[in-house]
Amino acid sequence: MDGTAARHEADEILAELPDRISDVVKPFARHSPDHPALVQGDVTWTYAALAAVVADTAVILKLYDIRPGDRVMIVSENSDAWSFEREIRPFAEKW
In this structure, is residue 14 part of a structural domain? Predict the structure, then answer.
């Protein structure tokens, strides 16, 4: 696959993704707030709890003057928290 074809394929994949990762969580939080979103051992986060942390994180990042387009580095071990950080919470809900 040449560079142009690879870029076109990447653009198609990106076009199918939600603008914000939180767009994936919010509908579940509205319709199934008490259902498990993340489970690790005996710890379970519901969709409502996950959505609340996403909203809180957006506020905290804005307080630090982190804005859309800024890059944020996260260092963590693999865990439910890492999954959350990587998949859901990136900078003010923007992926």
Answer: no
Instruction: Please tell me the distance from the alpha carbon of residue 88 to that of residue 90, in angstroms, as a whole number.
Output: 6
> How many Cβ atoms from other residues are within 10 Å of residue 45's Cβ?
20
Number of domains making up the chain:
1
The DSSP symbol for 33 reads T
Q: Give the whole-number percent of the chain exceeding pLDDT 70.
A: 73
Cα 40 to chain centroid distance, Å, stands at 18
Which residue in the block uniquely carries the two structure tokens 């990587």?
86
Selected residue with higher pLDDT from 66 and 75: 66
Q: Does residue 84 lie in a domain region?
A: yes
Q: Give residue 58's domain range.
A: 19-93
**Token pair of 10 as six digits:** 């990447």
Tokens for 54, please give them.
């996403």
Contacts 24+ apart (CB under 8 A), 66-75: 66/91, 66/92, 67/92, 68/92, 68/94
